[in-house]
């Protein structure tokens, strides 16, 4: 690809930018548009190295009257969102757009051919895909800045671009699409981009369901149809009807860790909403099938089901329609607190699937395969993936909350104090109670409000169909008793429903001991009897990086996975690893294909769970074509990691990583934990103090309102550094580690050997390179100049920028490049085209932060809103928030 943006992408950026300019001119006058152009021109020349333009830009922004600050920030924010639409549109059209290394994202047909050439029989390919279990878990982490009403307008703008591109032979169609585009951009400009209230957990769940309705509902059958066609061509058979290589789960309304807004009542409401939405979507499918399945030829099984009627398929579909309609009405009545007794409802996936399968088999038996494999097959595929709940709802709670229940319970029963017991005593008590037939919890037990909420959550589990629920995740898990306590509560309160229980290992110390904990857990005979020889373990990326620094955390995550694979193999247990990745590099983010193939060999064995959070859900799954490509990327990566796993690292590579991680960890801790100036610097130079006012999500920005950086959640921690373009959490410590190694004999050679031959290390460097390209120490220095007065804090800032510059040098040395992103020009161009629009937002944000501090937080509502718009705009421009 040339170093210029692809022509169609450039054209669409221009079309959208011109339309926005006309909209702003209509609203605020041509003179205001000239101001915007002046600011953009200065920013562009400043980016080209003109220092006078850089100074003039800052002076110009500081002279802007208060009345202009909000519309100026909105103009640049809006353009960056439109640029994102153009880029997403481009990626949907051109599936070979490479995000990172050339050839890093193959299409599925090429991978199937490679697997076949490597000696995998066609039948093996079908069996592997049919047995694959990839669950993408939509989480409600507060990183989606854009309001849902604007997302809907942006999706419609994308449709207009498609219509304009396909109107070459129909100019009147193009004119209509252009008119609609102008209308939508005007609507977006005149819509408040910032929420005035935080979304509730139920709002977040509705947003997640909307992604399924508007995108995945179409993308899922399309993905399976493409897969069927490939397998027919490669192996001569289709994917089995009930196979669902990729499924969806959710944390929205189930993740109560540190979020007091997620209660048992909220979880129950979200589960009912899922049932209501699923029934509503299936009704649309069934109405279409009723209209289309007018055939009279049928096999004896269908005739026996419906009797001797003229249109047997329609008859069966009509009966199913009535039950699904009753299910929708039941869910609605429950949500409104009304009783419902209007007939039997659909309780399980099979009650919906079985009648449709009867129709499918009948059509095939009488020679109507073409009809069977049309809309009916699409609906069968949807049922296989979405069930009757749309997603499986995971539940997450912190280990200490379960320990609190046990402490209150043992105290109430006169058994002692659970919290004072040793780990062995806890395990013995929990295993004995798990084996006991008598109830442990008194019927009228008076416990604390906190413990009552935990008990009520398990009551919700007991009241649900098992297929509605996913995994129970225990955050801050550190001992086998943390898992046994949940198992006991599930037995005591959850009744017949037993969910997989996944301990989440997230700090550096927890990751280092994860294998030992699971080994001890699986050695307990009473526990093995509960699990069915399956174990799920969640690996935390966000908090481990915040705790230890990115490089040390990445190596700890890798080693933890290796150990867990070995432990579970030794115990004869099937392991599923659940990767708690965020959107940014600092939270384990990055391209899915590269991330999966960089895992230890054997850790992805046809089974994978991974979080998709915040704005990444929209970027990956917000539109059917993009969602289709994202699903293909996941299927490719898991298939390749299963059939063509990466090599195990050489022993001397492991030794290198041990040394690198040790140096990086020491350097990171030396700054973040041990430098007394670090926390004051962080709070002075970043907008961390203002983040709480940005109504991103339902969760508080801190786990506790007192305390320092350690209480700050990983998302606002990274959000704050991203806003000033220093990106510190994702690189601090890496520069010292690499520089130390380059000074030693043969250091460069071994690092390059690791880069070329070890996917884990190569992917780490790719992510670091992209991050360095997005960072900008000059912008960080300006924030410091405007917001920091204390000389010792300024000195710390200078040292941090020096560390960054050294890292920049050593990364280029290892990569043997003159500049960053030499081999990925599309990403470099995407960053460069956005910078003249992001730079003014940085200047305005620093100015607004200073004015806010000067006014002790009492700036006007318009200026406060302008500050929030700068945060949203910078996040949109950098394509990641937290």
Short structural description:
This protein is mostly helical. It has 4 domains: 108-146 and 196-257 and 584-646, no CATH class; 263-386, Up-down Bundle (de novo design (two linked rop proteins)), CATH 1.20.1440.90; 396-581, no CATH class; 651-823, no CATH class. The model is unreliable at 96-104 and 585-589 (pLDDT under 50).
Polypeptide structure, described:
- With 882 residues, the protein is mainly α.
- The protein has four domains: 108-146 and 196-257 and 584-646, no CATH class; 263-386, Up-down Bundle (de novo design (two linked rop proteins)), CATH 1.20.1440; 396-581, no CATH class; 651-823, no CATH class.
- It contains 36 helices and eight strands.
- It has an eight-stranded parallel barrel, surrounded by seven helices.
- α31 crosses α32 (759-774).
- The radius of gyration is 28 Å and the shape is globular.
- The two termini are 30 Å apart.
- Mean pLDDT is 90; it is low at 96-104 and 585-589.
